[in-house]
Amino acid sequence: MVPLTTALGTGTAQAASCTAGTGPYQKQVEKFLGRTVDGKQSVADCKAIKAFQAQHGITPTIGYAGSLTWQTMNTIIQQRAAGKTPNKAGSCPTNKGRIACVDLTRQLSWIQDGKKLKYGPVPVRTGRDKQETRTGAKKIYWRNIDHVSSLYNVPMPYAQFFDGGQAFHSTTKSMYNPPGSAGCVNLRPADAKSYWNLLKNGDDVFVYGRKPGT
């Protein structure tokens, strides 16, 4: 569901910026990346960690197995575990008909009709610390396919607003790019287009959980 591979850069510049330090989450990160799990940093480990960090905008991008890198990987692990039963715990209402669910804890969203999964689950990028995506029951009240934010002057394609200035919309950033959005629920372009086609004004949205790091 979530692409994790990226080309590993080579050369002296990369080698020079790679840390030799063993991070506190070295073993977990090695396991996630399919490396030999020995808890010891190697040049190859560093390059693999650095490539992951570069793909998702995690800084400093030096190949260190720190808390943010592991937090990101752990979120991806939880997303994979959701499979096709993201609402197994029943946290998102099943008595509303068509509803878009947003799980902040797993940074995951999907659309369901009652108990039937209609789309997803897909990774999302929600609000950062102090600008969290607000939890609770909402409804889509305004849609604009070519919206541009008047506050931040940035494009918000396929915008579907459900809580004040908070909306589903497309972004080209990685869904794991820290520290997160300014409150909106970011989607990958193809997912944002699908949400646009599946939802309409008046449809329910339910946001719950807590984003890691907020």
TrEMBL record:
Task: Fetch the Gene3D superfamilies from UniProt.
Answer: L,D-transpeptidase catalytic domain-like (2.40.440.10)
Which InterPro entries does the record associate with it? LD-transpeptidase, LD_TPept_cat_dom, PGBD-like_sf, Transpep_catalytic_dom
Pfam families hit by this protein? YkuD (PF03734)
Sorted UniProt keywords: Cell shape, Cell wall biogenesis/degradation, Peptidoglycan synthesis, Transferase
Q: What pathway does the annotation place this protein in?
A: Cell wall biogenesis; peptidoglycan biosynthesis
Where along the chain is the active site annotated? Answer: H169 (proton donor/acceptor), C184 (nucleophile)
- Could you tell me which CDD domains the record lists for this protein? YkuD_like
The L,D-TPase catalytic domain is annotated at: 97-208
Family annotation (SUPFAM superfamilies): L,D-transpeptidase catalytic domain-like, PGBD-like
Q: Which PANTHER family match?
A: EXPORTED PROTEIN, L,D-TRANSPEPTIDASE
Q: What is this protein called?
A: L,D-transpeptidase family protein
